[in-house]
Design goal:
The complex is a heterodimer.
Chain A: E1 2-11, E2 14-24, E3 29-33, H1 40-47, E4 55-60, E5 63-64, H2 69-75, E6 76-79, H3 91-101, H4 106-119, H5 135-147, E7 153-157, H6 165-178, E8 183-188, H7 191-197, E9 200-205, E10 208-213, H8 215-222, E11 227-233, H9 237-246, E12 250-258, E13 263-270, H10 277-286, E14 290-297, H11 301-309, H12 316-320
Parallel strand pairs in A: 3-8, 3-9, 6-7, 7-8
Antiparallel strand pairs in A: 1-2, 1-4, 4-5, 9-10, 11-13, 11-14, 12-13
Chain B: H1 3-16, H2 19-50, H3 54-59, H4 62-86, H5 88-96, H6 98-102, H7 109-131, H8 133-141, H9 146-171, H10 177-193, H11 198-201, H12 203-212, H13 218-223, H14 228-254
Helix pairs in contact in B: 1-7, 2-4, 2-7, 4-9, 4-10, 7-9, 9-10, 9-14
The chains are: A alpha/beta, B mainly alpha.
């Protein structure tokens, strides 16, 4: 549905994105993750035919964004980061205006606008001026605008920003409901959002895609070692630390915090993703210490994200040849 | 035909804010109360005197004494009114972020531009229609020739179109409406004063500058003469700046 090949965009001498290549299949929900200025919005603006890439090509629904930009625009619904609203229009007036430009036949216009308002929970404010609405409602008006013509492709730049938790949950549900035959690309700062909504995540940093996979696989594959959370009770914490480090297959041990004068929590990381839980348990019990808790810990998406985007430059080349790109 | 929604939206937005009404008021007040009735009153006094003095009677011409002045004044008021209407056209879209919406909707840049241009032009036409009350009053009391009035209005529409095109172009360069308005004033005043320098630039240069003066092309219209040269000047001027606007919109996106 969406094919991007070697997209590069320069703003003057600085590259916003470089050699971005990816594909999105019909019906997929893909999340763009990345710090501010990583190139998420730039990529989206290219896909929506707002501006052309400096080099590389992108095709949306089979149409080239540069040569068939009107065809692309017809098939894409776009919610930019700054929700584009006319403050002096009413909600329904604004949506009617969009419907008119979108060439929705006159007979269907009213029904379609009403439908979009209902989907986004806007019926109660349909006659209010957009300028008088709260941020949450404005965000929803923006979303209704993007959905109005039932596009094949939805591109949403930070769709849940500025909403309260209840609204966030509603919007997420709405996006999930939309999926199916529709393709959705969304960008976000909120990592759990990706694991919740998206079938696939692409992590973008400094204009390059550094990883792309399902959130689950990303979590699993990017873990360098197996991590175990331990809580141990014993008289001498230094001795415990030493004993844990002595277990075969342990890469490093960290004392996380002290729980009581006698007990402390530790984080043990194993080498080569080896499961060393039984060895650790045996070591502790054999020395007569109390094993209060032992649990394998998944690396959260946050940690993976931070790890990827704070990578040292020298590791960049290794990243590119990694299987996640 | 996809310019129509943009046209309607812009027109609605002028009339849903006070801007159009305020401008209409000042336009009517300045042209009417201030200049028109002053001129007209002078004409009426002269015509009373003319009943005693045949020499005056010969010099009396309502078209020359009142109507030509009226159009001159309207042109000047337009110079101050139209930049206030055009300043927001693209600057506001950029500031609001709706720029991004406009250029990801399935509509060509040219259609957007056309919708916006025609919307302001319609407001201009309404303003001019409002001013028709003065020739109307005159027609009740005297016998003006209708033809110079018609060409005068045509000249106003063409001149206004040129102002609007320039104003839209400037608006597409900035996201600050105030800067757009003042830069438009600056350019229009330069175009107004071209040719005033004829004393010291040499004969050829003076002639060229005079031809570029945006107001001097109005003279023939006000006399009731429809000269192709002047019509073409205004049309080319308008198209040239609309073309520049398209280029400016395009380049904004190439450069990000």
């Amino acid at each position: 549905m969406i094919e991007a090949e070697n997209l590069t965009k320069f703003y003057g001498p600085t590259a916003a994105i470089q050699d971005v290549t990816f594909q999105v299949e019909r019906g997929e929900i893909v999340g763009f993750l990345g710090p501010n200025g990583a190139g998420k919005t730039t990529t989206m603006k290219i896909l929506t035919a707002f501006f052309p890439p400096t080099s590389g090509t992108a095709r949306v629904a089979g149409y080239d964004v540069l040569h068939d930009s009107l065809q692309v625009r017809r098939r894409v619904g776009y919610l930019p980061e700054n929700v584009p609203l006319y403050m002096d229009q009413t909600v329904s007036g604004y949506l009617c205006f969009i419907a008119e430009i979108r060439d929705i036949p006159r007979a269907q216009r009213k029904a379609r606008v009403a439908e979009a308002m209902e989907e986004c929970g806007l019926l109660e404010v349909q006659d209010r001026l957009i300028g008088k609405l709260s941020k949450g409602f404005r965000q929803r008006v923006g979303l209704a605008q993007a959905l109005l013509h039932r596009p094949e492709v939805l591109i949403l730049d930070e769709p849940t920003i500025g909403l309260d938790p209840k609204q966030i949950a509603e919007i997420r549900q709405l996006i999930r409901n939309l999926a199916g035959d529709r393709t959705v690309i969304l960008s976000t700062h909120i990592l759990p959002e990706v694991s919740m909504i998206c079938g696939r995540a692409m992590i973008i940093n400094k204009g390059r895609i550094v990883a792309a996979d399902t959130p689950k696989n990303l979590t699993a594959r990017l873990q360098k070692g197996f991590r175990i959370h331990l809580e141990v009770e014993g008289p001498d914490q230094e001795a415990i630390l030493g004993a844990l480090e002595g277990v075969e297959g342990v890469r490093c041990v960290q004392r996380e915090r002290t729980l009581s004068p006698k007990a402390a929590a530790y984080l043990v990381e194993s080498e080569d993703r080896r499961d060393i839980r039984s060895q650790l348990a045996r070591t502790i019990v054999e020395r007569g210490w109390g094993l209060l808790e032992l649990r394998a810990q998944d690396m959260s998406l946050e940690e993976i994200f931070l790890e990827l985007v704070t990578e040292e430059p020298k590791e960049d080349s290794a990243q590119e040849s990694s299987p996640f790109v | 035909m996809n310019w129509l929604p943009i046209y309607k939206k812009e027109l609605r937005s002028y009339f849903s804010s006070p801007i159009a009404y305020v401008l209409f008021f000042f336009f009517a007040a300045i042209n009417g109360a201030w200049w028109f009735f002053w001129d007209f009153q002078r004409y009426l006094i002269l015509s009373i005197q003319a009943t005693q003095n045949p020499y005056y009677a010969e010099a009396l011409n309502v078209n020359e004494m009142v109507i030509r002045n009226l159009f001159g004044n309207i042109a000047l008021v337009l110079l101050f009114c139209l930049p206030l209407l055009t300043m927001r056209l693209f600057a506001e879209e950029k500031k609001n972020g709706t720029y991004e919406l406009l250029f990801t909707l399935p509509i060509r840049d040219g259609e957007t531009l056309m919708g916006k241009f025609l919307a302001v032009w319609t407001v201009l036409a309404l303003m001019l229609a409002l001013s028709a009350i003065y020739p109307g009053v005159m027609a009740l009391l005297t016998n003006p020739e209708p033809w110079p009035i018609l060409t005068g209005y045509l000249g106003m529409l063409l001149l206004g179109g040129a102002f609007i095109a320039l104003g839209i172009f400037v608006s597409s360069l900035t996201e600050n409406q105030i800067i757009a308005a003042f830069a438009t004033y600056g350019l229009l005043l330069v175009l107004l004063s071209l040719g005033w320098t004829s004393g010291w630039v040499g004969i050829t240069a003076a002639a060229v500058l005079k031809d570029l003066n945006i107001f001097l092309h109005l003279q023939e219209f006000l006399k009731g003469v429809l000269d192709t040269k002047d019509v073409v000047f205004y049309l080319l001027f308008t198209l040239f700046f609309l073309f520049l606007t398209l280029r400016s919109l395009e380049s904004k996106r190439w450069r990000g």
